[in-house]
Design a protein that fits this description.
By secondary structure, the protein is α+β, with helices and mostly antiparallel strands. It is built from three helices and 24 strands.
């Protein structure tokens, strides 16, 4: 019975001795993404999203009613001026034109007869065989026949034009945006068949809230950038501001003319309208992921360039925006701050810079003054 406590004591001593001889594991160097501080950021960022459209978009339709016989183009097709877009069944229009021509022929015969009667009456009047009143009757009959002839001739011209209206042609080069009717469908005169955007001038259409309507002035120069190519900014100028709000969205439509847009600016693309921001020589713009700490006590992690050790530093944040956070105090130009992984760092920890984030400045192409 006395051997068991002794054995337990020996085992405990041996375990303690073994633990004391173990090596302490070293903390791994944590990789981080950093950014070099650059002062002179914009005070505000005014960006409005809109849609690229053609300056002129026309809803094409037949000038006469009828049944669509064939549609020659589909949505997305590029068309040339004079190209046939769709055709109506021409049979009814052809019959109406033939009837109008027949009426003109009948009016021609009536006019010829009235002219002959008038000529004979004139000769008889000169020979005193008929009275002046009888001659006046023949003259009135001739005048009525001539008026009916002119009326029938005009109606025949209208019927002939309507026969040609059964073919819908493009009046300018452009692209078909929407096809709104199919072959076999009966349509009325003027009913839209397709929507065609004319080639040439393009614009960006945005919806401005009423609280910011005063910011938009006709003739002001702005920058435009496609979502598909945000680094390339081209010039634009505000062309039109709606005089009334949309009854549903309560916003005002603003149209911005695109000046020399790039070739990849296609109709229907999403684009940003960017106002020229004012810059502050002491303002720093950082990604939102670089801000650590509480909202009322924001801080960033600054990297020592000699030891790669990080230290927290309290800063003063001006604005939290969609493009980042503006820092007004606490950082100097050229310092390196951590922009990713800030919530897993501790003071004095050595980090490995795996990537340095440098914001790319937009390429401004031909911005209007």
């Amino acid at each position: 019975m006395t051997k068991l406590p002794c054995l337990a004591l020996v085992a405990a001593v041996t375990l303690v001795a073994g633990c004391g001889g173990a090596k302490t594991a070293t903390e791994p160097v944590r990789p981080v993404i950093t950014q070099k501080v650059a002062v002179g950021a914009s005070v505000t960022r005014e960006v409005y999203s809109g849609e690229v459209r053609a300056r002129y978009e026309t809803e094409m339709g037949f000038r006469v009613a009828g049944k669509i016989l064939k549609r020659e183009v589909d949505a997305g097709a590029r068309v040339k001026q004079g190209q046939v877009l769709a055709r109506l069944d021409p049979e009814d229009a052809k019959l109406a034109s033939d009837a109008a021509r027949a009426q003109v022929a009948s009016a021609d015969a009536d006019l010829a007869l009235a002219k002959a009667e008038l000529d004979r009456s004139r000769d008889l009047l000169q020979q005193k065989f008929i009275s002046q009143s009888a001659y006046d009757v023949k003259q009135n009959v001739y005048a009525a026949a001539k008026a009916r002839h002119d009326q029938m001739a005009s109606q025949a011209a209208v019927s002939s034009n309507q026969a040609s209206y059964t073919t819908l042609v493009a009046d300018a080069d452009g692209v078909v945006l929407v096809a709104m009717a199919e072959p076999g469908q009966v349509v009325g005169a003027g009913q839209p068949i397709m929507k065609v955007a004319r080639a040439g001038e393009k614009e960006v259409v945005i919806n401005a809230p009423e609280s910011q309507l005063a910011r938009f002035k006709v003739g002001d120069a702005v920058g435009l950038a496609l979502w598909s190519d945000p680094t390339r900014v081209f010039a634009g100028r505000i062309r039109e501001v709606a005089g009334g709000a949309d009854p549903v969205t309560r916003t005002y439509t603003v149209k911005v003319t695109a000046i020399d847009p790039p070739p990849n600016a296609q109709i229907g693309m999403t684009a940003n309208v960017i106002f020229r921001p004012a810059s502050d020589a002491a303002l720093v713009l950082l990604p939102l992921t670089a801000i650590a700490g509480e909202r009322d006590a924001p801080a960033v992690w600054v990297v020592d360039p000699k030891t790669n050790a990080v230290q927290p530093r309290r800063v003063k944040v001006g604005q939290f925006r969609e493009d980042g956070a503006t820092v007004t105090e606490g950082l100097a130009s050229g310092e390196v701050v951590v922009t990713a992984g800030v919530h897993k760092l501790r003071a004095g920890q050595v980090v490995r810079i795996s990537e340095s984030l440098v914001p790319a400045a937009p390429t401004q192409v031909g911005l209007a003054p």
